[in-house]
Amino acid sequence: MTSPASALPDNPACVINCTWYDENGTPQTLALDNISDVLASDAKGFVWVGLYEPDDAVLEKMQEEFNLHDLAIEDTRKAHQRPKIETYGNSLFVVVHTAQVLDERIRYGETHAFLGPRFLLTVRHGASLSYAPVRARLEREPGLLAMGPSFCLYSVLDAVVDNYLPITSSFSDTLDLLEKDIFSEDYKRRTVIRLYELRRELNKMRLAVAPLQDALAQLQRNQAQLVNEEVRLYLRDVQDHASRINDAIDTLREMLGTALSVNLSLVTLAQGETVKRLGAWAALLAAPTLITSWYGMNFTGMPELAGRYAYPLLIVGISVTCVVLYRLFKRSGWL
């Protein structure tokens, strides 16, 4: 029924796991060539195959072993699909987007899952965390594996959705830190750039999470007898988590939009205050400049030129004018 462990190296490098789980949840490694033989036997259990960016030859092999539809294989080969659920005969084709933080940027990938009565095939593309921890947790609890491949699909979807939670939390923490710079008196161009980058990343994440809610709802309502009723309850919980994440994304997007507007308003107000101060000082300089310029025109008939106290009086007059203007501007808040 199963291949020996020595057959594992015969599997291509893109095959992360190829395992048969018997009715007791005991895992046994398989070679790809033995999958159809195991499924054709009377043994109770199912096969779980995990691939990462497989080539065309491996996908054709999977199509042959699991009798998958041509259109589903074509979608998996291109790997640029929207989150969706499609039914092909006695199997379901599920597409979800995954997210992973690499080099302080969010990288997106896809997971394509084929669910059959006795098999689960997961195909990962792009940035995607391994599902090895999910398999390890299930193998520690054979009772969960006894629920069949649909529960394994739920576990994969739950891992995908839960992986969005720390990303949204990190966005919220980053926004809290940026608020200090937003309300700082010193304008920082980097703050605006970072706010824009966060808004862009949230928009991308929303494109991945929002359709996922519809896909999960469709999976629960699917009439195919591939998902048992108990697993549908678990899927409802995953959909609830996805809805909460989507709401958190929408809230953060609104807060970032508000933060950008507030930052722009504060910069505009700061510029207005600077212009007012410059205008006030210009007026203070204009008054003595206007008065003294009269005495620079070299006219012999200028008044007070012959007066003994003309020059000191002129200085006093200019000083009084400047003091009056200064007090007026100070009272109005221009200085």
Salient structural properties:
alpha+beta
Structure description:
With 335 residues, the protein is an alpha+beta fold. The chain contains ten helices and seven strands. Mean pLDDT is 81; it is low at 1-9.
Structure summary:
Helix content is 58%, strand content 16%. It has 335 residues and is α+β, with helices and mostly antiparallel strands.
Number of helices: 10
Structural class based on helices, strands and sheet pairing: alpha+beta
Strand order of the largest sheet: 2-1-3-7-6-5-4
Number-wise, the strands total: 7
Radius of gyration: 36 Å
Global mean pLDDT: 81
The N- and C-terminal alpha carbons lie at a distance of 89 Å
- Give the SSE order as H and E letters: EEHEHHEEEEHHHHHHH
Oligomeric description of these chains:
single chain
Low-confidence stretches: 1-9
Characterize the largest beta sheet: strand count, sense, and whether it forms a barrel.
7 strands, mixed
| Overall outline | rod-shaped
What percent of residues are in strands?
15-25%
Helical percent range? Answer: 55-70%
List the helices and strands and how they pair.
Layout (H helix, E strand, L loop, with lengths): L14 E8 L4 E3 L5 H6 L4 E8 L3 H11 L3 H9 L5 E5 L2 E12 L2 E11 L3 E8 L5 H9 L1 H4 L3 H14 L1 H19 L6 H33 L7 H66 L15 H23 L3
Parallel strand pairs: 3-7
Antiparallel strand pairs: 1-2, 1-3, 4-5, 5-6, 6-7
Helix pairs in contact: 2-3, 6-9, 7-8, 7-9, 8-9, 9-10
